[in-house]
Amino acid sequence: TPRIFSGIQPSGGLTLGNYLGALKRFAALQGSGSETIYCIVDLHAITVWQEPDILRQRIREGAAAFMASGVDPRQSILFNQSQVSAHAELAWLFNTVARVGWMYRMTQFKDKAGKNSENASLGLLAYPALMAADILVYQATAVPVGEDQKQHLELTRDIAAKFNHDYKVEHFPLTEPLIEGVATRVMSLRDGSKKMSKSDPSDASRINLTDDADAIAQKIRKARTDAEPLPGSIEGLKDRPEARNLVNIFAALADQTPDQVLARFEGQGFGAFKPALAEVAVEALSPITRKMSEFMDDPAEIDRILGDGANRADELATPILERTKEIMGLLRSR
Ligand code: AQP
């Protein structure tokens, strides 16, 4: 059976971008005849500084967001990465396969390291090797992600191909990215050229999954737009990134195509569109916010679910890691 893996970093409160680009699709992929393995990638989060007590809480919040979005821990394996040591072990092995030059080319590294890249953590540079390990330690065949992760997925395939070539084996699959739908790249509400991100310093740039109805409506009301009326089809929004973003968000939340949305709003301005978008957003997100807070009322239960998921993940990962070590000539005698 096809095996699907994906993860989300607990590096901040989750956003509408994480929901539409990832979480919503994770839930939909369950029971599609694939095995689904979903992970809160805490080892990735610490590539930039995280306050320990806040991180612990965000890992639980991440688990609550997965479940509130419809990921069922009985149908899927749900766990946090640091509880399954095979991820970090395989990442080390991949550090010897991947080339330094590959890592320097990653746009996410350039963005996050900023100008002073000499001072970035070594982990931030090696991030994609750990991501490759997350996926390949399960020999996963497909990874649902947003557009921003495409380059890392290509690097995962490069690592798998180089490993298979160097050791003359067919051990790791060439994993396919699943980048589908109209919201694979949700943009900032303040700047149509930047993706919506949980670590953007401006809270007004994003909708958080913990925002209440008033906050959502206010952020949408203040979202940057232009003064033109809406056209009848998405083609007409080519040079209007902010407008296009809001229409795409509407479409994704309402399970419509952007053209269906525009058919309804053609000729109208944002004075009419924004309140309707706020309504759709509140309707889609408020049940998730409510369920998240219900899950968060019982942190011990979340910890139990993550522990159980980690045990099941460990059972799948350990034999694949062991086989990898054997292939590489690392002596096993116990
Ligand atoms: N704006 C977005 N639109 C669509 N998908 C998105 N994703 C993130 N932002 C958007 C998808 O969410 C999944 C988890 O992302 P991540 O936690 O690994 O971190 P990220 O991609 O780096 O996302 P953020 O929110 O921007 O986090 P920070 O600010 O910490 O870097 C991925 O599938 C991603 O594609």
UniProtKB/TrEMBL annotation:
| Residues in the signal sequence | none
- Tell me yes or no: is Lipoprotein among this UniProt entry's keywords: no
One Pfam family matching this protein: tRNA-synt_1b
Q: Which organism is it from?
A: Paracoccus saliphilus
Reaction catalysed by this enzyme? tRNA(Trp) + L-tryptophan + ATP = L-tryptophyl-tRNA(Trp) + AMP + diphosphate + H(+)
Subunit architecture: Homodimer.
Keywords attached to this Swiss-Prot or TrEMBL record, sorted alphabetically, are: Aminoacyl-tRNA synthetase, ATP-binding, Cytoplasm, Ligase, Nucleotide-binding, Protein biosynthesis
Q: Where does L-tryptophan bind?
A: 134
Q: Which GO terms describe its biological process?
A: tryptophanyl-tRNA aminoacylation
Provide the protein's localization. Cytoplasm
Which segment of this protein is annotated as the motif 'KMSKS' region?
A: 195-199
Function per UniProt: Catalyzes the attachment of tryptophan to tRNA(Trp).
What this protein is called in its record is: Tryptophan--tRNA ligase
**UniProt keyword annotation of Protein biosynthesis present:** yes
Member of which family? Belongs to the class-I aminoacyl-tRNA synthetase family.
